[in-house]
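The instructor's notes for this session suggest beginning with a concrete chain rather than abstract definitions. Hand out the sequence below and ask the class to guess, before any prediction is shown, which regions might be ordered.
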Amino acid sequence: MAKGLDVGTMNILSAQQDGNDTVFVQQRNSFVEIDYSDMAEQMLSRSEVLHIRKDDKVYVVGDDALNFANIFNRETRRPMQDGILSSDEKSAIPMMKLIIEQVIGEPDRPGEKLYFSTPADPIDTDLSTLYHQKTIESFLGDMGYDAEPINEGMAVVYSELADNSFTGLGISFGAGMTNVCLSYYAVPVMKFSVARGGDWIDEQAAQATGTPVDKVTSIKEEDFELDFETDVGGVEGALSIYYENLLDYVIDLIVEEVDEEDVEEGLDVPVVVTGGTSSPDGFEALFRDHLEDANIPFSISGVSHADEPLYSVARGGLVAARSDEQEAESADAEGEAAAADE
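After discussion, reveal the predicted structure:
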């Protein structure tokens, strides 16, 4: 059974098929450190809170980390930063391994096909994604998966543009990065990332208002709307300002990077936006307004927002993995048929 895996800065999600349904498993990609005590560890185990102990510390991992950070008035720590493994976090690799294991589980069979998301190298910094990609690939290989990377923007195309022959512009607004991919009949003709996303918005809003970053993140994820009717001096007003700035930044870079020769003359290109950072109500309308004001060098047939923006990348990985698996099964069947005829 093939699987897709979205290795995100904020969340890690898996997708796999169960009959006619797609099943998703999700964990927040963060942890918080608390002092060890027998009582604390017993309570965590009894409550089935994901955690590990190391020396005199206990690390609460995943979805419960943000709750514990708020209770103990501490900042969560992230295994990933700016869309890739954090070089500043010594515990990044063991924490990532634990979260990934919880999300995907053991393979159903040796060599089970799995596509995992990886960002393109950002065009606005000198960050390289190669070490991140190879490290995740190694994790998954050690677990027994036949793992392949898939560009995050291309995963959006696989997930959301099947009805348009996998042709269009897919944009994933993640926490650490924003990934962009222009695809023509499932062939990526342009792909890049920018080193800004939801984390950048949170950090800027936190700095502007003097509010802890985790508190800003909680406000954004609870009931924040991009309606521009909130008090400019508050956290929600600051979030709106930096959301708008991010959209302008991404669209300006799309205009710079797209080569008109990459787009067939007369082709109307659909645009689909997704990712956890695109979740607030009003995002689609705001993005469409800003895109209409830009000098995009090709015709746009429309802008849509994924129905389940948090799940798009994992679903796209699953589509790619299932396609590979079906091709392999077909090739095996043809080989057996040929052998039988000899």
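Then share the key points. Residues 30-77 form one domain. Residues 23 and 120 are 27 Å apart (CA to CA).
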